[in-house]
């Protein structure tokens, strides 16, 4: 870790973004492949920004000789983490019935369908519902935890970045 401390702060924070999003994505994959919880469509939506944040964080870390470029990549990573937090909040709201989610994964059947259309809809329906909580800790679903932890990570990274800007 001593070598990482010699890097410019944007590169250090890029490493934090890489590891933070990597841990979050790793947790999701653990629940999927080890615990057997199949992800819904909205779960997949939350993974893509984590992947983008990991790539941007790695790029910020690798751009240590160009602190401005590292800062640009770090801003992209922070934005991606904030986006996954927002998606997680939306998903948690769907799970707790605060608002309606996308019809493709919330299990609602459209009205006014002919018997043939209904059959086609039901046989083409996704089996993993976005509006069902499959696991929770302290009454908070996985989507809720993604929203909370990603928000904390994004705010922490943005705070670190603001220290960099104010020290110039």
TrEMBL record:
UniProt cross-references to SUPFAM superfamilies, sorted A to Z: DsbB-like
Membrane is among the record's keywords: yes
Keywords tagged on the record: Cell membrane, Membrane, Transmembrane, Transmembrane helix
InterPro entries to which the protein is assigned, alphabetical: DiS_bond_form_DsbB/BdbC, DsbB, DsbB-like_sf, Uncharacterised_DsbB
Cell location: Cell membrane
Membrane topology: Multi-pass membrane protein
Cell membrane is among the record's keywords: yes
Pfam families: DsbB (PF02600)
Gene3D superfamilies: DsbB-like (1.20.1550.10)
Major localization listed first in the record, in broad terms: membrane
PANTHER family in the cross-refs: DISULFIDE BOND FORMATION PROTEIN B
Protein name listed in UniProt: Disulfide bond formation protein B
Source organism per UniProt: Reyranella aquatilis
Organism phylogeny: Bacteria, Pseudomonadati, Pseudomonadota, Alphaproteobacteria, Hyphomicrobiales
